[in-house]
Amino acid sequence: MGRVLIRDKARLALLLLLLAALAQQPLNALTHSLLPDMEQRPALYYAAVIVEELLLYGLPAALLLRRARPPRRELLPAQKRRMVVVCVLVGIAAQYLLQALSWLWVSLLALLPGHIAQSAVVMPRSIPEGLLAFGALALTPALAEEALFRGGVFPCLLKDFSRREAFVLTVSLFALMHGSLVGLPAHFGVSLLATALLVSYGHLGAAISFHLAYNSMTLLYSLIPALRIWERTSWGVLIVSSLTAVAALAFWLTRVHERLQGDRPAEANRTVHGLALALTLLLAAAYVPELLTALGV
């Protein structure tokens, strides 16, 4: 591939995401055909997950990061340390808050006439498998997905979209790429917070630290039943907690919104804007079969 011109960055980012979206199902089917018993062999399962993450997210990220960088500010070492600590704490808190929203969401879906199957998490059975699980379910997704979406896609979109448009597109495309109706609120929440932290700190490490902390807490949540407090919580507490979290998030996002203002909307590029719309609709359409099943159709 020759050198990509600046005006082609957004198109390249969207085309790579389109290819990744189209490759998801074939790659998943190929993996299951080659390794039909991998869910009974945790080490093999985690290795397959790592390979899929690297192919779907890491490879496109490597292509984009050669020509695009996240918006940066010079940070002193102490500020970097504070940034990491804050983002890790946000990740831990977000895991609990998004679990509340997710539990409420799943409860609402359960009221529909159809049945939506929730994917089971393959549990490690030893310390080596636990380390592999951390690499597959926490570390690799945090690095590969953040490098792609916050490190590559977001700055590329800034070439043809305003800051707010690029922000909304990045958040939406990340969430929709994960293809899970049950996990949709959590994926949107993670994407929103990761992108907001990138904008707040101007450093890709902020998004990676947050995502890694969130994924790590999710893994611990699956392994340690005592952490699953929302499963033993009443609907009233769930609703109040969710509303409180949304209110706090809305207050913080007003500060983030200020950083997204002041830019002149980029000159419209019909091809790039049409590609962004087509990709969003394609990813959204993948949810239709699962939604119809939930509605009992």
What are the SSEs and their pairings?
Elements: H1 9-34, H2 42-65, H3 77-110, H4 127-157, H5 163-177, H6 184-201, H7 204-223, H8 235-260, H9 270-285, H10 288-294
Name a few traits of the molecule.
single chain, 10 helices, mainly alpha
Task: Give a concise summary.
The protein has helices at 9-34, 42-65, 77-110, 127-157, 163-177, 184-201, 204-223, 235-260, 270-285, 288-294.
Give the H and E element order.
Answer: HHHHHHHHHH
Largest sheet: none
Number of strands: 0
Number of helices: 10
Query: What's the N-to-C terminus distance?
Result: 46 Å
Question: Strand fraction band?
Answer: under 5%
Main structural class: mainly alpha
Principal-axis shape: globular
Poorly predicted runs are: 1-6
Provide the residue-averaged pLDDT.
Answer: 85
What Rg do the Cα atoms give?
19 Å
Helical content class:
over 70%
What does this structure look like?
Helix 2 (42-65) runs parallel beside helix 4 (127-157). By secondary structure, this protein is an all-alpha fold. It has helices at residues 9-34, 42-65, 77-110, 127-157, 163-177, 184-201, 204-223, 235-260, 270-285, 288-294. It starts with 8 loop residues before the first helix and ends with a helix.
